[in-house]
Write a structure and sequence with these properties.
About 15% of the residues lie in helices and about 10% in strands. It is an alpha+beta fold.
Amino acid sequence: MMPVIPTCVAEFFTWDARSQNFRATGRDYRAIVEALRAQRLGFKDDVVGFSKLELSVAREVRPYPH
């Protein structure tokens, strides 16, 4: 049986026939969570607490003039 996806987030998901699950890209995570919260829809969030990743620039990159 195919799970039901709320219409407020349906655009972010595609059906994966191999795993029999809906999938969304990680870049859409925030938009999905915000849309579900705005509609006051409960959901199970299995994302483990993540920490901020500190990165530094290894070298200066100058844009090309166009």
